[in-house]
Design goal:
By secondary structure, this protein is of the alpha/beta class. It has helices at residues 11-23, 63-73, 87-92, 95-114, 148-167, 189-198, 218-231, 248-258, 284-290, 298-311, 313-318, 322-335; strands at residues 2-6, 28-33, 53-57, 77-80, 119-125, 171-176, 179-180, 203-206, 212-214, 216-217, 237-240, 245-247, 266-269. The protein is 43% helix and 16% strand. Helix 2 (63-73) runs parallel beside helix 4 and helix 4 (95-114) packs parallel to helix 5. The protein is globular. Bound molecules: nicotinamide-adenine-dinucleotide and 2'deoxy-thymidine-5'-diphospho-alpha-D-glucose. 2'deoxy-thymidine-5'-diphospho-alpha-D-glucose is lined by residues 85-87, 125-127, 177-178, 188-189, 192, 204-206, 211, 213, 248, 272, 279.
């Protein structure tokens, strides 16, 4: 299969490319990534040697460049991971989120239509449903996004489905819960807590820390995306949930215990505006129709992840670029936390 993968230098995209390349050695992969602060070529080290893997530094919102790339590569399938993905950044600077997460998707859809792509997989998120106090969201639940990131993803989902209904473009959408695992940029909660704890730095817990996320090991998500790519029904949406709900404060304490660090590193800071209290997904549809369910328990995925970050401290350190530092210096001072 000839697959056009966007955002393959980020966290989930790079895990997916490794998974896919190992499982289908004869597949042809083109990885298109803008290499924003979150994109890291180191995440795919080793793959450059494969003849059937290519990388192109490009912006999905650049219509002329995307058109040329589709024309040359002629993909059978597109999997769109590319996005601005961090909620806090979307609150301070929403514009790039609208451009990449909505307009960029529009550019890809136009190209997919023009060049007769057989399958377009849009990687979406459980955040489009907003927060749920009790029960779980199903694929037909009402969308109720709370922040510019999730609103841009919800808008993109609408556009993707419109291209199916209006033009018959063979699309499928996945909506997953919070992923964790190797190669996750340490602005996201789990790698941030691990990194700060290793460096004996303060750990900012937003508000009371009782917000709940449903943690999904990234490898389980890669397996689900592959199944949806091959067997998902066109025009459908599939929730992909880890089924491991944890309150943030529980996760922090578990990390500190595992790394043998004191609880005094925890610092409760001002809450995130519009902070969703709880995410929870029903995975009945993907389980019943495609036979997928998560295989990794939180305990084993969590230990694998901590071990990976411990072994790859250089990778973690290399992510601390100027762009990262300047964002956090400003952000932490707003939260009332001095960067230690
Ligand atoms: P990430 O921020 O780690 O990676 C995003 C990648 O996209 C980076 O490599 C970046 O360089 C690239 N990119 C950004 N803008 C681009 C553009 N205009 N053109 C080309 N490339 C661009 O994100 P992630 O956590 O790996 O998330 C991947 C996808 O999965 C996103 O669409 C996100 O919304 C979705 N998602 C993530 C999670 C999660 O827990 N991380 C959960 C559900 C859904
Ligand atoms: O649910 C899927 C979503 O998960 C994805 O669509 C997003 O791309 C991804 O970033 C993630 O969004 P969250 O906002 O849930 O993840 P984040 O890692 O930013 O935060 C997880 C929880 O931890 C959230 O309740 C906020 C809290 N938090 C986060 C940070 C960075 C803290 O308490 N302190 C922090 O420093």
């Amino acid at each position: 299969m000839k697959v056009f993968i966007t955002g393959g230098c980020g966290f989930i995209g790079s895990n997916f490319i490794r998974y896919f390349a190992a499982k289908y050695p004869r597949s042809e992969i083109l990885n298109v990534d803008k290499l924003t602060y979150a994109g890291n070529l180191e995440n795919l080290k080793g793959l450059e040697k494969r003849k059937s893997y290519r990388f192109l530094k490009a912006d999905i919102a650049n219509a002329a460049q995307m058109k040329k790339t589709f024309k040359n590569f002629r993909p059978e399938a597109v999997i769109n991971f590319a996005a601005e993905s961090h909620v806090d950044r979307s609150i301070t600077k929403p514009d790039t989120f609208l451009k990449t997460n909505f307009l960029g998707v529009g550019v890809l859809l136009n190209c997919a239509l023009e060049y007769g792509v057989e399958r377009f997989v849009q990687i979406s998120t459980d955040e489009v449903y907003g927060s749920v106090h009790r029960g779980k969201f199903r694929e037909d639940s009402v969308l109720n996004p709370s922040n510019p990131y999730s609103a841009s993803k919800a808008a993109a989902d609408g556009l993707v489905l419109a291209y199916y209904k209006t033009y018959g473009l063979p699309v499928v959408i996945t909506r997953s819960s919070n992923n964790y695992g190797p190669y996750q940029f340490p602005e996201k909660f789990i790698p941030l807590v691990v990194f700060n704890a290793m460096e004996n730095k303060k750990i900012p817990v937003y508000g009371d820390g009782l917000q709940v996320r449903d943690w999904l090991f990234v490898e389980d998500n890669c397996r689900a995306i592959d199944i949806v790519l091959r067997s998902g029904k066109v025009g459908e949406i599939y929730n992909i949930g880890g089924q491991h709900e944890r309150a943030n404060i529980q996760v922090v304490k578990q990390i500190l215990r595992t790394l043998d660090k004191p609880l005094t590193l925890i610092e409760h800071v001002k809450d995130r505006p519009g902070h969703d209290r709880r995410y929870a997904l029903s995975i009945a549809k993907i389980k019943r129709h495609l036979g997928w369910q998560p295989k990794t328990s939180f305990e084993s995925g969590f230990l694998k992840t901590i071990k990976w970050y411990n072994k790859n401290r250089d990778w973690l350190k290399n992510t601390q670029t100027g762009a990262y530092r300047s964002f956090y210096r400003k952000y932490y001072s707003k939260l009332g936390l001095t960067e230690t």
